[in-house]
Amino acid sequence: MKAAMFALVLICLGSVWPSAGSQPLDSSIIHSSPNDIQKLSRRYAESTIASDISKIVDSMVQKNFVNFLLNQREKKSEPALTEDPESHIFNDLLKKEFVMWIQSKGDTFKNQ
C-alpha cells in the first residue's frame, strides 16, 4: 500500500516537475496566446493534483501515527500473563516480615 502510494506520488510529481520550470509567471500572461493560457491551466491542474496527493499522504501519516500511539498504549495497559513464581514467594516473605515487625512494635508498646 505504501509502495503503491509512493509510486503514484512519483508519477504525478514526474509529470509536474519538468513543466514547473518551463515558463516563468509574469504580467505578460494577460497578452499571451490561448496556447500559453492552456499551458498555464495545465500547470495549475497538475499542481492541484500534487497538492491533493500531498494532503492524502499527510493524512495517512497522521492516521498511522495515531494508530501507533494507540497500540503503544494498549501494550502498556495489558497485564503480564507470565509472572515469575519467585516474585510471589518474595512478596509473601516481605508481607510476613512486615506483619512480624508490626507485631513486635505492638508488643513493645504494650510492655511500656
UniProtKB/TrEMBL annotation:
What keywords appear on the UniProt entry?
Hormone, Signal
Q: Quick one: a GO biological-process term for this protein?
A: regulation of fatty acid biosynthetic process
The answer to whether UniProt assigns keyword DNA damage to this entry is no
Question: Cellular component GO terms, alphabetically?
Answer: extracellular space
Concerning InterPro entries, the annotation shows: GIP (IPR039078)
Cite the GO molecular-function annotations of the record: glucagon receptor binding; hormone activity
Domain of life, per UniProt, equals Eukaryota
Provide the leader sequence positions.
1-22
What's the name of the protein?
Gastric inhibitory polypeptide precursor
